[in-house]
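Just wondering, does anyone understand what follows?

——
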Amino acid sequence: MSIKENLVPVIASLPDSPGVYQYFDKDGKVIYVGKAKNLKKRVNSYFQKDHGNTKIGLLVRKIEKINCVVVKTEWDALLLENNLIKKYQPRYNVMLKDDKTYPWICIKNEPFPRIFPTRRIIRDGSAYFGPYTSVRLMNTVLEFIKQLYPLRTCNLNLTDENIKMGKFKRCLEYHLGNCKAPCEGIQTKEDYSYSVSQIKLILQGNISGVMRYLKKQMEEEAAKWNFDKAQQLKEKLELMERFQSRSTVVNPSLTDIDVFSVRTDEKCGYVNFLKIVNGAVIQCQTIELDKKLDESEQELLMMGIAELRQHNPATGFVPAPEIIAPFELNAEIPGALITVPQIGDKKRLLELSQNNLVYYIREKELASTLVSPEIRTDELMSRMQKDLRLVKPPLRIECFDNSNIQGAFPVAAMTVFKNGKPSKSDYRLFNIRTVQGPNDFASMEEVIYRRYKRLIEEKQELPQLIVIDGGKGQISSAMKSIERVGLSGKITVIGIAKRLEEIFFPGDAVPLYLDKRSPTLRIIQQIRDEAHRFGIMHHRNRRSKGAIQSSLTTIAGIGGKTAEKLLKKFGSVEQLKAVPETEIAAVVGKAKAALVKNGAGKQ
C-alpha cells in the first residue's frame, strides 16, 4: 500500500522506542490510537501491504496525520493508550462498554461515618469498596457487618458541638439494638472509630486479623470474669468464621493476587478480574471491550489489565504484587510477578475466573433474549445464513419427513419454523396418493410437488429454506419437483442425515459438518425432530383408524363414517355383537342397524 507523501517523512523519523501513536483523518479527528514496543516497526507495518477492503485497509486510507509519544516502557505505553482511547474515543479502537454501573460500599467521610451502598463515587474523602457485580453478595456483606458492629443509619449532622448541645434524641434503632446512640454521646467517637476501622479491614479482605483481635479480646474478658462480654465476642467470632468459610475459595496462604482471564466472540472481548486476599475473593468484575479491528485475546487481555489494575485513591484499590493469567503476556508489568499456572490452587483460581466469564456471557445472552428477543432472532438468522451459505436469512423454514410401515398408510409431515421458532398453525400432513409400496423417494417427490405447486397457484409465502429428512436420494427426489414447479435456484434445499447429522446440498458429494453446539444445527435438528414426531403421530392415527374400520367397512352398505360413529359409541366390534339391534338403530337407523347386526355376527 503506497504511503501518502505528507506521511513519508513522519514515518521515516520515528524512533525505535516504545510509545503511543495517534492517527488523524482529514478533519483532524483522532481515528485510532495504538501502542508499540518499537514505534518505527509498528507504524511502518500498516503501510507494508495492501489490506484491501478490510477494516484495517479503510483505516489506513483515512490517515492524514500521525502523532507519536515516546515513553520508557511498553507498560507505560499501554496505560497512555488506555487513557487516550477514553479521552478521544477513536472510531477504530477497542472501546470499553460501560453500560452498567456496579454498586460500591461507601464509608462516608463525616463524623461517625455511615456505611451504605451506592452507584456514585464522589471524591470527598469517603472510602469506597467494590465494585460488587452481585447486589445480593453486597447486601450479604452489609448484613454481616451490621450484625458485628451496629452503626448509625440516620443522616444527622453529628458534630461534637451538636451532641453536647443535646440537639438529638435516640431513636427506635437504639432500642432494637441496631445502633449505640452516638447522637446522645452514649457511644464515644473512639469506640465508633474502632468499629469503622475493623469494618475497613473486613472489606479489604483481612478477616483473619480481625478474628485474631476478637479472640484475644474474648480471652481477656473471660479472664476478668466478664462472661457476658466474652460471650458477645465469641458470637461475633463464630459469625466471622462462618462468613470466612463461605468466602474462602482456596488455600488461605495465597495472600494478595490479581487474577485475569479473557474470552472473545465476533464482536466483543470479555475480561474477568478477581482480587484475592487471604484465599478469599474480595472483588469480582467483568468488563466488555467492543472489538473494531479483529483484536487478539492477547491485546484484549492487556487492555483489560491496564483498565482494571489502575490505582484508585478514591476506592483504596492497590494492585497486587502477583498476577495470574491464562497465557504469557507480551509486556512486562512493573511491580508484578506474572504466573501462568498449570496445576494446584492457583490453577483453580484461574478456572474460577474463567467460570465467572462463562456465567457472565450466558447471563448477558439470556438478558438480551428476554429484553429484546428480536435482536437475538436477528443474530440467529444471520448465523444460519452464513453457516448454510444462503442468499437471504431463513425467516421461514419448511421441513418434510415421510412415515410408513411396510408401505401401509404412507404419510408425509411438514413442519414450519418462523424466525427460528415452531409455527404449529402452519404444520401440514399429506396422505400419499400416487405411490404404491414403500418408496420414500417417490413419496418425497409427490409431496414437494403438491406443496409448492399449490403455494405458487395461490400466491402464498414461499420459504427461504427447505429441509429434507434424509440424504442424497431424498434431496434428488425433492429437487425434481422443485425444478418442475420452476423454483430451482430460488429456494435453498438441504438434507440432514440422521446417523452423523450431516448436511447435504443438491449436487454436492461432500456433506457439511456443523459444530455440535452450533445454533444452526440445533434449529435444523429441532425442525427435523418436530416433523418426525408430527408424522408418526398422524401415521399412528391413520393405522388405528384403518384397523378399526376395516372389519366393519367390509359389510355392504356400511361406510367409514358409519363405522367410526358406531365404534365411538360402543367401543369395539365385540361390543356391537353383544348389544341389542334397537340400541344400534338409535345411532345409525333401523336399516343400517340390521346390516351391521347381520354382518358383525358373521365375522
Observations:
- The first strand starts at residue 19 and ends at 24.
- The chain has a mean pLDDT of 80.
- Residues 272 and 306 are 13 Å apart (CA to CA).
- The two ends are 92 Å apart (CA to CA).
